[in-house]
C-alpha cells in the first residue's frame, strides 16, 4: 500500500471511529449545544496548531524545509499538544486507540523522513521521535490519574473530536496532489469505514 493510500485509510478510519465512538458519547454526557461549541473550538484550535506544525498532523509539511540545522521547536510543541490531547479519549473509549494508532503511522513516517533528511544531530532527532511517541500514552495516563470530573473529561473529548474531524477531512481531500477521488482511494475509505463499524 502506498503512503498516500495509507494516509487516506488512516483519515477515514480516524473519522469513522470518531463518529461511531466519540461523538455519540459526548452528546449523551454533555448538553448538546455545549458539545457543539467545544467541537468547533477543537477545529479552530487544530487550525492554530497547524499554523505552527505546517500540517504534519495530516501527512504534509507545507513550506517546511528538511535541510535545516535548526530544531523545529514550534512544530514539536504543536505536534506535542495535539498528541497529548488525543490521548484523553482513549481513557474513556478503549476502541478509539485503534483510530489514533492508525492515524499515527503515516504521521510518524513523515516526521521520521523529515528528521532523517534534516541536518539536525541524530540525538536530537531520536529524542524528538521518542518524546512524540510517548505523548499520547501520557495524555491517557493523565486522564486516568488526575481524577478529572466526568464533565471535564467529556469536554476535552469534545475538543479532541473537533481536532480529529478537521484532521480526518483534510487527509481525505489532500491525500494526493490533485485532490481527486480515484477508485483506490474510494476503496480505502470504504474499507476503513467498514472495519471501524464492525470493530
Description of the structure:
With 199 residues, the chain is an all-alpha fold. 77% of the residues lie in helices and 0% in strands. α1 crosses α5 and α3 runs parallel beside α6. The relative contact order is 0.23. The mean pLDDT is 83.
Key phrases:
single chain, 199 residues, mainly alpha
Give the structure's gist in a few sentences:
By secondary structure, this protein is mainly alpha-helical. The chain has helices at 3-29, 32-53, 73-85, 88-92, 96-117, 122-145, 150-174, 183-198. The longest helix is centred in the first third of the chain and has 27 residues, at 3-29.
In helices, the fraction of residues equals: over 70%
Helical element count? 8
- Percent of residues in β-strands: under 5%
- Give the end-to-end Cα distance, rounded to a whole number of Å: 22 Å
Biggest β-sheet, characterized? none
Derived from helix and strand composition plus strand pairing, the structural class reads mainly alpha
User: Looking at the structure, what is the overall shape?
Assistant: globular
Low-pLDDT residue intervals, each spanning 5 or more residues: none
Number of strands: 0
Output the helix-strand order. HHHHHHHH
Q: Roughly what is the average pLDDT, rounded to an integer?
A: 83
What Rg, in angstroms, do the CA atoms define? 17 Å
Would you spell out the secondary-structure blueprint of this structure?
Elements: H1 3-29, H2 32-53, H3 73-85, H4 88-92, H5 96-117, H6 122-145, H7 150-174, H8 183-198
Helix pairs in contact: 1-5, 1-7, 1-8, 2-3, 2-7, 3-6
Amino acid at each position: 500500500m502506498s503512503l498516500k493510500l495509507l494516509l487516506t485509510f488512516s483519515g477515514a478510519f480516524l473519522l469513522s471511529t470518531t463518529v461511531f465512538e466519540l461523538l455519540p458519547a459526548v452528546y449523551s454526557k454533555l448538553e448538546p449545544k455545549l458539545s457543539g461549541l467545544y467541537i468547533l473550538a477543537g477545529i479552530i484550535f487544530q487550525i492554530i496548531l497547524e499554523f505552527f506544525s505546517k500540517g504534519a498532523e495530516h501527512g504534509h509539511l507545507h513550506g517546511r524545509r528538511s535541510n535545516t540545522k535548526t530544531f523545529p521547536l514550534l512544530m514539536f510543541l504543536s505536534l506535542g499538544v495535539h498528541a497529548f490531547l488525543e490521548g484523553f479519549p482513549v481513557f474513556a473509549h478503549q476502541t478509539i486507540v485503534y483510530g489514533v494508532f492508525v492515524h499515527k503511522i503515516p504521521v510518524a513516517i513523515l516526521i521520521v523522513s523529515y528528521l532523517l533528511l534534516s541536518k539536525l544531530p541524530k540525538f536530537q532527532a531520536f529524542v524528538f521521535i521518542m518524546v512524540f511517541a510517548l505523548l499520547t500514552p501520557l495524555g491517557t495516563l493523565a486522564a486516568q490519574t488526575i481524577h478529572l470530573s466526568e464533565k471535564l473529561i467529556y469536554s476535552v473529548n469534545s475538543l479532541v473530536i473537533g481536532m480529529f474531524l478537521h484532521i480526518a477531512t483534510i487527509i481525505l481531500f489532500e491525500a494526493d496532489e490533485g485532490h481527486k477521488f480515484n477508485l483506490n482511494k474510494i476503496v480505502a475509505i470504504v474499507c476503513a469505514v467498514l472495519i471501524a463499524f464492525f470493530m
